[in-house]
């Protein structure tokens, strides 16, 4: 590959051939390794095709491709329907390339030349020095950036698109651009090329072997390893806060944690986690555990641990999760403590279910939930972010057809959707690291949890997609659960509503808008970072920050502009809020309270069920 100077290529006088970059070190070994790569690739292909040939997997790839083509065709129709627009679109792209070509020629002649385009400072893909020093790779990088930026502009400027189609087109264009990045291919990534030639292709042998393993582990679909799965085990170095399972039914187990203080707040704390993921995100390890911290702050902590459902639970709906989950847990808390009221916490879709429960209890004039805290929870789905790309009538019907075959949605499908929202962070770096560099990923508890996906019952997931994302019924007072038309404004309990500034799943603006649905006082707090790190931010780490700004009224932008920023964790601020509602203390309680016999040690068996 051509480089502009002898110094850059290493071609100085007397330089040994073994020190030249981008040259095969041992052609014979390299050829042998290429043969091994082909052999391992064959195993990967067999792992992919065998379950499909046996009918064990029904591929929906054609439906996905058809949806992408249909959406992007709408963009193409706009630009090709008018010759003048077509010409302008072509000239916009070519002018960028001509400017790049001119700058590259000046650099080749030794003249000073500024880049035509540069990556976003947050873009981690082009950090290798060769992307700047080597003229070939620098040209390749800039050509890619110009093209991808042009494609995104074509979507943004297509005037005839409705909002949903534009949103989908923008999302698909970004996913295609991310996939086609030169950083994802050996011959166009200087770091990968060096590593392949330096190791005589050993990296590719290891990578193809891991690829075959991961496709086999996924039952014919790629189960992308984001962490070393051998380094973690739930109950041993994850979810280790001491406690007991004191109740279980088909849908959930209820855990009560062992107190670590002599006295506890009289009012217990019930946590409703999402069932899309597992509850131990709030109990990763002793340092990061919100549950352990809350126990240490004097709370009697109860947590719902949802089952990983199979086809037998296909008809379990949102209503069942409320009646047999949250409301049953309230009975368990009362049996174990004698208390008729709780402070409740809901996380993500668990928070949405908690809000549904609040509205249901308000209609029944039931006051067992005295306060509610929401972690990155959407009530109003108007600004629900990129997940809305996957939600329209046609796509929901396709999901419902797939779920009807098994009675549930496979956990990996939701996990893949979440990963796509940040594919440059959660997909492509691991593809490059695992399968092209041939390196095992670093053991990271958060990413292990992220890959520990759960299934979702067909009835439950269909209800959620339609009533929340598609029709936004909860905030519009149209949702019906348990024969009750829900109206959250009738719930007067105090609310602590936590958003995260960089949340791509429950955007902070969406959480802010949801505050208007409640009938009681609302404390809106915005944490730094995203959907997980914004929540799991223990005070001991002194990371990030949070914003407070009074009542969540007016526009979101106006609230943010006036909000007060405080460094560090929001946890102590929440503790001050929740203990201020009812600060009376009693003697610490043992799990079960002598009335419910413990079934097993925390974290229980339900959370250990793998997808």
UniProtKB/TrEMBL annotation:
Its main location: cytoplasm. Keywords: Acyltransferase, Cytoplasm, Transferase. Residues 1-21, 589-611 are annotated as: Disordered. It comes from the Bacteria. It is found in: Cytoplasm. Residues 122-294 form the Poly-beta-hydroxybutyrate polymerase N-terminal domain. Its EC number is 2.3.1.-. GO terms for molecular function: acyltransferase activity. The keyword Transferase applies. PANTHER family: POLY(3-HYDROXYALKANOATE) POLYMERASE SUBUNIT PHAC, POLY-3-HYDROXYBUTYRATE SYNTHASE. This is Polyhydroxyalkanoate synthase. It comes from Rhodobium gokarnense.
